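User: Show me a protein chain along with its predicted structure.
Assistant: Here is one chain, sequence first, then structure tokens.
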Amino acid sequence: MLLFIVFAPLVTALLILFGAPARVTALAGSAATALASFIAFLSYNATVGGFQFVTSWTISESWRWHFLLGADGLSLVMPVLAALVLGIVLGMATPDF
């Protein structure tokens, strides 16, 4: 879930870069990110606390590089708010912008 929240804006930007209609693609990407963020926020178990939805991969064993992604309660609020603000801005922008 967190991987989708992190990489959906990147995929949206790449789609726009390669010629997808900017406004529609940005609104769809923002809506998908907001929905995934909201689902992750509602799925967070506050009684357990701490980091949840943890994902970890080893990038380089010899250099001890690891990709680690997790979220606590506060860090789940931020993508929800950011996606909602972006959706409101894109929805209210004039079509020629």
